[in-house]
Amino acid sequence: MAKKIKTEEDDWECENCGEMFELDEDEEDKIDEKGKIRVNCPYCHEKTTCEYEDEDESKDYEDDEDDEDDEDDEDDEDEDEVNDNELKIIESFSDNDLEIIKKTENKEFENQEILNLRLMAEDILKESEITELLSYPQIKKNLEYDFPFQREGALKILRDMDCRALLADEVGLGKTITSGIVLKECITRGFVKRVLILTPPSLVDQWVDELKTKFELDFKPIDNESEWENTDFAIASLDKVKNFDISTKKFKHSQAHEIYWDMIIIDEAHKLKNKKTIRWQFVDKLQKKRLLLLTATPFQNDLIELYNLLYLLRRGHLGTISEFKKKFLHKGNKRHPLNPRELKKKLYEVMIRRRRDETNIKYKKRIPRIKEVHLSKDEGEIYDEVCDLVVSKYLNYKGDPINTKMAVYSILPKITSSSESSKEFLYNLIKNPKYHKSTQDIAKNLIERYKKLKTDSKIEDLIKIIENIFKKDKNSKILAYTKHPATLKYISTILKSKKIKTVDFLGGLTREEKTKRIKEFKERAQVMLSTDTGAEGLNFQFCSNIINYDLPWNPMAVEQRIGRLDRICQSQNVKVYNLATKDTMEEYIVDLIINKMCCIGLVIGELPIILFNMGLDSSGNTGAIKFEERLMRAFLDSKNNLSRFSTEVKELDKEISKGIKQYEETKKYNSDLLD
Predict the structure, then answer these.
(1) pLDDT at 337
(2) pTM of the full predicted structure?
(3) Which of 527, 613, 611, 606 lies closest to 566 in space, CA to CA?
(4) Average pLDDT for 34-38
(5) Rounded distance, CA 423 to CA 420, Å?
């Protein structure tokens, strides 16, 4: 065992994870006469020995270790002979292990009959080797495509890995489908009864829909703590359920830890790269027989991230942290391992990974088209005055400024969406008694001026875009998006008056009604108008034109819009049309999100990884993601001064460019090690 030094700062180094920590006063009192004490490391929670030692003596010891690395094989053999007579015991217990020890001490054993049944079950499982997917004929009829690599990957996970695997296919190869096949097969064979799926917040609904439509499985989203007990097929946002109550020192969703899950699937598992995070610790405490971790980039900046991920999957597979560092970290290089072939061999014992060039899957290009909307003089003046109202004349009934950013953040996108959604905001302001009379008077005046407008420049430009698309191909299909129901109804009325065959797709539709409207769009209608919640989780590969009438300030929401068309089986390049009102904040936001983020050649699913790596994907104080908050805050701080606003947008653009470059480097590091 390596000796440890007690430094002047009273820090001790853990022999397992290498982290430095301090001893509590009561622990200091327990140091024995030899200057040693064995304690639990506060970081990795494993036993480690702390030993007093003179620093000079320690330096000699470290020098000796370096010399040993240079000794020849004969010296190694001599050392082995000496060590043969020594007994080395490493105590490393998980929470589950400690529970078993406690039961053993209390003589709490299962009866012999149950033990015999368990042993019989294990024997039966060993004899029934899985050579085919019994459930696939049922799954196949619901899939839009049939790729052998997905079936082969699922079979390998089932047959060779006991369903404890890292699924690290490159982005865009359908890891959701592969893991769904594994899950369905386990259910069909009776292996699993209770399943938990953990995903990012933005993907919960998409997972629920795919599991229902493709695998005929009903999963219940977990929103509060009371729902765990009676839910066999649970799905939840990991960011939501990981919340830790500091006062009680317990997870708010600790009930999840009391359930023995037959299978757990974790999407975007690269978020579990750090053992010190609450997110990692929440997952570590889950009781699980089978575990699938899904990520295309198992590590970002440090091979220790890879170790932390596999520690959740199979403890000890890569040895202790000190053994891993000694064997695979090359002179402190965190990204390029020592013994890469051996590490790769160990990884492939628990990992499935396929590249796009191996599967012949090719995504089509995204072609951005930005249409500048030039407002009339009257339209421009009204727009500026509505913005001014929100920024500086938004008063409560007492006459005090309303500085609730959450409320303001929900208003700004409505103003840029359409005159109709802007009027809806003003009408609500007039009706609500919580606003000051002066604020309501301004709103009334603005509504009257809206009524006198003779043109709507934005809707006129939308009609021109649609007509031009049909002029090139009269059989084209168009999916047009707006964030606001009021805007959708307004556009729908205008398009139908122009004899354009239109179908509306809003949130709140039943599954049967959704199916009916999708069929109508595919077979008869020319244009589908949809809100973001309406088309969540749906696929429209038969359509290759998308129009963003307004744009969410959350780039991941824009990705999900485009992702409805930009799918594996899309046969044409996807044209992404966007309306951007000149000399407004919309002009800068559309350019940033469309030209600098969503249409630069990234594959669907890569942008969320980039934003996570940059720390811009999590929810901020207002409930919006931090990227979106940055834009909102920039506009409020600018006081509707577009020059100041554009400066902040350019700064954010630089950060995004840097984040994309770092992600490309990360992909290369992962490819160098894994492929």
Answers:
(1) 76
(2) 0.69
(3) 606
(4) 70
(5) 5
Query: What's the longest Cα–Cα distance across the chain?
Result: 97
Selection from 578, 551, 555 nearest residue 629 by Cα: 555
CA dist., res. 256 & res. 237, Å (int):
13
- Rama region for 45: left / alpha / beta (φ>0; ψ in -120 to 50; rest): left
Residues 6+ apart with CB under 8 A from 308: 272, 273, 274, 275, 280
How far is 428 from 542, CA to CA, in rounded Å? 39
Structure tokens at 410: 């929900």
Rg of the chain in Å (alpha carbons):
30
Using a 10 angstrom Cβ sphere, with 0-12 exposed, 13-18 middle and 19 or more buried, the burial of residue 319 is middle
Residue with tokens 């490393």: 92
Category of 128 on φ-ψ map: left (φ > 0), alpha (ψ -120 to 50) or beta = beta
Q: Say how many Å lie between the first and final Cα of the chain, rounded.
A: 35
**pLDDT reported for residue 75:** 39
Amino acid 182 reads V
Span 265-292, average pLDDT: 92
For residues 446 and 422, what is the distance between their CA atoms, to the nearest angstrom? 10
Residues 125-156: tens digit of each pLDDT: 554 678 889 999 999 988 888 889 999 999 99
Give the CB-side neighbour count of residue 13, counting CA atoms within 13 A.
13
Sequence-ordered list of residues with C-beta below 8 angstroms from that of 200, at least 6 positions apart, any chain: 237, 238, 239, 267, 268, 271, 608, 617
